Structure formats: structure tokens, C-alpha cells
Amino acid sequence: MGTVLATLLAWCSSALALNPELDISQYAHTSWKIRDGFTKGQITAIAQTPDGYLWLGTEFGLLRFDGVRNVPWQPPADQRLPSNFIYSLLATRDGTLWIGTAKGLASWKDGKLTEYPELAGQYLFELLEDREGTTWASGSAVTGGRLCALRNGSAQCYGEDGALGRGAFSLYEDRKGNLWAGVTDGLWRWKPGSPKFFPLPGEPDGVHVAEDDDGALLVGWKGGVHRFVDGETEALPIPDTVAGFRTTRILHDRNGGLWIGTVERGLVHLYQGRVDVFEPRGGLSGDIVYRLFEDREGSIWVATVNGLDRFRDFAVATLSMNQGLSNDVVGSVLATRDGSVLVGSRRGLNRWSNGRLRTYGIELGMESLFLDTSGQVWVSTNRGIGYLAHDRFTSVSGVPGGNVLAIGEDNAGDLWIVNEEYGLFHLLRGGTEVQQIPWTRFGRNAHATTLAADPSRGGLWLGFHLGGIAYVANGQVRSSYASAEGLGEGRVNNVRLDQNGTLWVATEGGLSRLKDGRIVTLTSKNGLPCDTVHWSIEDDAHTFWLYTACGLIRIARTELETWAVAVDKNKDAGRTIQATVFDSSDGVRILASAGHYSPQVAKTSDGKLWFLPWDGVSVVDPRRIPFNSLPPPVHIEQVIADRKIYAADALAQEDSSLPALTRDLQIDYTALSLVAPEKMRFRYKLEGFDADWQDVGTRRQAFYTNLPPRDYRFRVIASNNSGVWNETGASLAFSVAPAYYQTAWFPVLSVAAMLALVWTAHRIRLRIVEKHQDEISALNERLMKAQEQERIRIAGELHDGVMQEMLAATMMVGSAKRRVTTNPADAAATMDKVQQKLVQVGSDIRQLSHDLHPPALQEAGLPEAMRSYCEEFSASSGIAVSCDADDSAHDLSRGAALALFRIVQEALGNAAKHAAAKQIIVRLIRANGNVSLTVSDDGVGFDRSQLGTSGGLGLIMMRERASQLNGKFEFESAPGRGATITVTIPFR
Fold first, then answer.
1. Is the pLDDT of residue 3 over 70?
2. pLDDT of residue 532
3. Are 332 and 612 in contact (CB under 8 A)?
4. Residue 36 lies in a domain
């Protein structure tokens, strides 16, 4: 391809077009394939309506595409298309979408679908709108083809006489206003004037028409493309390797490129005599092309047998073996004085000059390149170093080849060569002497990776593999800097002195600036998109360009100067810069690490920057960066409320109120820029809820939950791939209906109901309090009675027991007193008995105190206290007592435990005193939230009808204790059958 690069970058990029001078493979290409699920069937038609949507006709229906989402389109329920097989589409200037199907024609506008009976049953080949606003439709049926002109809702059709044969396969209006129709065997000029036929025999499948830059008609015919002038045809010159294709479509884009769809050859591209082909093996979705379409932003869309392809311009073009490089693995690039560019690849040295590539006969792998002050080009290979003289390579002895990372020149004209393995070589001017300096002399544990001559001081700057830089003069290190002094951390990838003597150091930790002995580093903390910088360069406008681990970065001169002023005043200044990033969507390959050899970037005399992505050589023209100035149309597509879908148009036109108690709300929106939809950004705001705009990046849905009932207005804006915002955007007003309890009248009714409820509750409360007071009074009476009886019992025990013993002891003391003198022995015996009585009295008092407040109950809990008491009672009374106490009742409240313990004491005492029992069974059980106590004996029992006649208060006391604990007391007994008491209380 000798002329492939003839005008590679001379073209001035437009905001809305492709550079026609590039090969198809140099465009940004995206493919959507049927087998990947993009569509259900083949795409047979493409159109773009004024709102920005791309419409795709398929054999299974119509699709609406926004560059990201592909949505099937259906007419309203009461309308239908003539057929779901869509063969042609046309979007006219008034916003009408014309839909040509396999069984007729329909148009869609303002929510209404219109059919045209004149073309009913016709297979619609082609649709066209002429400059007068007339829509032309070409159809075919078994009876023959028709050509209809549609104006103001009426149709005038031609072809009933069979003149069109099977019908017109293509329609085209040239710049003079002639309407051309390509049929099976020729070409009709249909208007102006009377139709005239130009036979073109030999093409069995129809003629396809376009127009070139000179106004000549181009027809696809006879296995190629021909110029058609005044009825005469002339074949376009196409190389034999490309010729012979069968044309299916022709498109002449707005910048002069000719696109030809073919059968079995894919896509053919022609521009100013240059031809290239793009086939499935290069990435095209299929080898048969059905449709070609250019959208409003200049992208080219291609519908093939297997899918859909899009071609658009890159900001950065890349040359590879497709354009003639000897190899895609490129190690270095060098701009020469004559405007040419040298590219060192693994398989030789290439020179780009005047749009042509030439490969030198140097078969050794190329490494670093260098242009000295005399204009001599130095080349390092894997076997040695030499220079080019009269396009011939001359080697220089004394300097080993292999891993030469950089070459530089000092003020004396001597060369300095960085060899990774052997050290720094000093080649005296004229190559008369070579000196070798090992890396150990520089006090480093690693080799240098790059160097730059310092013409103001005469020495060299070296950057090292493990970090740090050093200034070297006369083979000695004069100064050095590392991360401790503020240099970026990690490998030094590039050092460069600008025209002001400032040293710029590209490192893995940022871009460092050394000026007047002071280092500051620009990193992500200052707005740099990422820290790893491969190299830096200034263009002719002194704008900074950095190749980094996140892409190619452009920093305006004013941004960098403002940052530099700030850090000169304060080294720690947190000034943030603004930068533009060019990534893979702009044609930039992103690399994690820098290249090995040098130079990695070059600037040619025309201002273009050439750099290495490791798979060719990339070129960017800073003066001609493609810029998309069209703000993207923004649309709100649908609202999903609690999984129910509402069309945005219907919601805006009809009742805009969402149901009450809507919990989950999703709003789907989009923006129509098809250049790079993945780079579009969105902001939205729900007025009535959001305080400010929400920046959501590339997300195309908004989510809200539990919105209060009120009126809302949702607004969304978007920017295209160049950062141009549509500030108007789209909006949708809606409301969330209130539930009955969220209405204005509900609080009034609620207050009234609450007042009534409070009044009723007050009255009920009064009644409850009165009843409760009565119950409390009765309970208090029972308690007072029980307490009185308890006092009587204690008094009786004191009187009958303790006091009687004390009286007996007193009398015995008096008797002993009288006998002391007369009968001392008898008095002493009496005093012993008194002592025994007093001991018994003490024991009785302790027992009484023990019964009132048992220590075991306080210390061990109710179950253990019961078991201990039963043992003591059995031992003292001689009655067998069986005690089974559930340990889970240990946590029973102190008051309840004491009451149950008292009941056990009372029950055992009654059994011993009144029942003449021989055996007593005591059980304490906790179950179902209650505690149950059962005491049964085998005593004499008694008649329950006689209960209370004996004057005993034991049973009454036990019943009262159970009642105080909100429990139940049950008593069973009969003469001769013993007695059983059961107490059940809630567990607390």
C-alpha cells in the first residue's frame, strides 16, 4: 500500500465526520452480532430520526437503539404494521418515520401509524425524501414494481405498465435535483421532465446509485463501481486484488469517502484512488452487506448478514503492518530534520516520508534511535551501534549492542550511551575513542533507564531503574535526587529539559519538576488522573502531553503554569489541575509500564506527536483533535413504579399521578450521541426531593424509594464524548398520590377520633379505677386480717411456748433461791433445770425468727430452702416427708418465694398438728409460665363442709397468700383420705 499514508494526517478533523484518508482498520470499530443476542434476526434497514434514535429494521420487527440499549418497538394496541419484516426505513425532516415492510408501507408520527393502500402487498425496496419534501417509495410484487410519490397524505404511483420490471432497488437524488432509480437492467432518470431509461445490461440484481465529489453518478454494476456521465459508463480503477466484487450498496460520505457494500468481500472503501477492504477476518460482523448509513455525527453504520458495525473517527490514529510497517512491535520513534519519521521495529527500520513507508535493509532488531546536532541518525541494534549515512547503516566498533536504552549528546559533541548490562559508554566525537563507566561508579544498585543532556551545564541527567536521578559531569556524579527530596517514587521512565532549563522527570509516582534545585511532583492528589507517567512532551503551543497508565493526557499550559506558581510559593500547595484524558475509546492503547528503548515519543515539524503503543505507532495532531460539538438529545423513556411500567410520554400526557404508597421508583433515561455512548455522562435532579444535581456518571437509571406524596419534576441532562452538555435536557412532571391517611382531611378526622377515643378511654379508666379501688380495699382488708392473724399466731406461740417456759423458769428460780441455804444440792439441780429451760426458750425464739425470715431461702433459693425445711421437719416431727423441688424455680421473685415457703410451713404444720399424718409429699414444679406447689398427706382428713368451724386460720392464710400473687388455691380432703392443697401462681 504505497499510497496508504499519502495524506494520513494532513486532513483537518471535523467534529462530525470521518477522516477519509485513513484505512477502515484505523477507524474506531464496534461490532454487534446476532449470535451474541443483539437482535433476533438480520438487520435490513437503518434510519435516524431527528430525536437522535437509531432505528433498525429486522426480519422480526422494528428496533430502537440508543447506542447502548436495543429496545423492540411496538405500535399502540389498536394499530399494527403491514408486516413485521422490515426492509426499508426513512426518517424525513418533519420527524416522520417511514416503515417499508414485506407487505406494504406505513408511517409513524405523533403517536399515529398510517398505512398506504396504494402499496399494500408490495415489498418495499427503497425510500427517499427529495429536496421538495416528497417521499418516494419503491415497491415490488409478483405483478411488477411500483414507484410512488407521497405528498400531503396522497400517493401517485407509477409502473403499472411494467416499465420498472421487478421494481427500483435503489433511489438517489443528485445535487442537481435529478431523481434516479436503479432497476434490474438499467437506470431511470425519473425527474425532472419525463422519465428516461438508460439500459445497463449484464447486472441481474439491480443497479445501486451514489455520486462522487465531481457530481458524476456512481453506479454499482458489472462486479464493480462505474462513473455514469450522459449515459456512458467508465469503471473506477480498482486493483485486481479487490476487483470483481458484487455491489449491494453504495454510500458517499460527507467528506468524500466512498463506501461499497458487497457480497462475500465485506466492505470496500475508496478515497482519491486509494482502496482498502475490511472483511470478517478483520473484524466485520459479516461478509454480506445489506445497508450502509451515515448518522448525524458522521459515524458510518453497516448492516451485514450477521450483525451491525459502526465506524467512527479516532482522536489518535495508529499505523501498523496493515499500513506497511515491517512489524507491529515498535521499540523507538524518531523525528528527523527533513520531516520524516524513523520507526524502529523488531524486524527492521522504517522511514515514513511524504506519505510513504520505506523499510531499510537492516534485518537486526531495532532498539534506540538518536539524532545528533549534525543531523546524523544513530541506530542501536541487538548486535551493535551505528549510524545512517546516505541511507546506509555503518556500524561503530567498541560499543556492544543489545539493550541500549538511550543515547545522548553533550556540548562537546560526544555521545553517551546507556547500556543496561555493561554501563554508560562515552563515545568521543568522531568515534575515535570509547570509554566505559560501570554502573557501580554512580553509587547505584541498578542501571540507568534514560538520559538527557544539559546544554547549559555541559553534563548529563540520568534516570535510574529503581528510582532517583543524578547529574553527571566528566563521568562523576555532581548531584542526585530521590523520593526523599520529593522526586516521584519508582522507576524513572523519561527525563526531559525544556527551553527554560526546567527538568521534567516522568516516574511511576508522578511527573516531577526540578527547577533551581527544588523538586515538586504532580500526582493524582493534584488532579493527575493517575500517577504512573511514561513520558512527557510539549507541543508547539506548549501544551503538555503525558502518556500514562490511564491513557494520553493533555494539560493546558495555563493549568500547569498556575500549578507551578503555587508550588514555587509553597511546596505543599494542594493546587488541583484540570486535564483531558484520551483513552481506548479515542484510539489510545493504555499501557501499565513504559517502553524499554528511546525515544518513546517524537514531534515532527508539522506539530504532530508520534508515540508507541507497542502494537504500531500512534499519531495525534494537537491542532486537529476531533471535537463533537453537537449536544446530545436527552430523553426520559419510562418510569417503573413498584415493578409496573409507565411510558414517559403517556405519563406526561395522561394522568401524571403515580399510585399511593409507591415504594420503589425507577426512571430510565438516555441521551443520543452515537459516537461513543460509553463516554456520555449524566446528571439528574428530582425537584421536590433532591437538594442538588446528582452526578451519576454513565448510569442511565435513577432510583428513589418511599417518596412522600406530592408533586415532582424529574430533570436530566447529559454530555457527549467531548464533554459538551445539553443543559436543557429532558424533564417529566409527575406526582405521587396520597393514601387516605396522607390526605389533608385525614388529620382533622384523626384529631376528632382521637378526642372521642380519649374521652371514652377516660370514662373507662374511671370505671376501672373505681373497681380497682374496691378490689384494693377488699384485698387490704384481707391482708390486714391475714396480718392480724399472723400476729395472733406469733403472739400465741410466744404466749403458749416462750412465755410459759419463761414463767416456769421464773418459778423454778424462786424455788431454788429459797433452798440455797437449806438444801444447796437441790437448789443447784433446780438451777440446772432453769438453764435448760432458758436454752429451750432461746431455741424457740431462734426457730420463730428463722421461720419468719429463713436464711436458706435468701441464700440458696426456694427449691433448696424447701428441701432443707422438709428434712428438718421430718427429723423433728418423725413424719416421713418426700420433697421434690424443680431447680428451675430458683429465679422466682423474693416475695413469691417467701409466700410459697410460708404455705409449705403452714401445710406441714397443719398435717402434723391436726391430720395425724404418717407421710407427707411436697412437690414444686415450674411449667408453662407458672409455678405449682402441691402438699398432700395421708392423715385423717375431714369433711370440707365443716371447713372453718374449728376456728383455724391456716387454710385462710394460705388462700390469701395465693390470692396476693394472682394465683389459684385449691383444697381437697375427705374423712379418712388425707388432704391435698395446690397453689398455682404466675412465674415472676
1. no
2. 97
3. yes
4. no
Q: Domain end: 841, 866, 881, which one?
A: 841
The answer to whether 128 and 135 are in contact (CB under 8 A) is yes
Which residues share a beta bridge with 157? 148
Is the per-residue pLDDT at 179 higher than 60? Answer: yes
Q: 20-37: b or e for each residue (b if 16 or more CB lie within 10 Å)?
A: bbbbbbbbbbbbbebeee
pLDDT, tens only, 273-287: 888 899 999 999 999
Nearest Cα residue to 159 out of 178, 180, 144, 179 = 144
Pick from 97-106, 187-196, 566-575 the range whose average pLDDT is largest.
97-106
pLDDT for 836 beyond 80: no
Using CA atoms, how far apart are residues 616 and 249, in angstroms rounded to an integer? 33
Report the length, in residues, of the chain.
Answer: 988
**Those residues with Cβ within 8 angstroms of residue 44's Cβ, 6 or more apart along the chain or in another chain:** 57, 58, 59, 85, 86, 87, 88, 290, 291, 303
pLDDT at residue 379 in the model: 92
What is the CA 411 to chain-centroid distance, rounded? 55
| Structure confidence by residue, pLDDT tens digits, 215-239 | 889 888 777 788 888 888 888 888 8
What are the angstrom distances between the C-alpha of 60 and each of 75, 83, 635? 14, 9, 26
Confirm if 353 and 347 have CB atoms less than 8 A apart: no
**Residue 101: domain span:** 41-168
Which of 909, 980, 910, 906 has the alpha carbon at shortest distance from 950? Answer: 910
Residue 804 has pLDDT above 80, yes or no: no
Final residue of a structural domain among 118, 140, 168: 168
Output the domain CATH number for residue 695.
2.60.40.10
Cα dist from 891 to 93, 935, 962, whole Å:
89, 21, 18
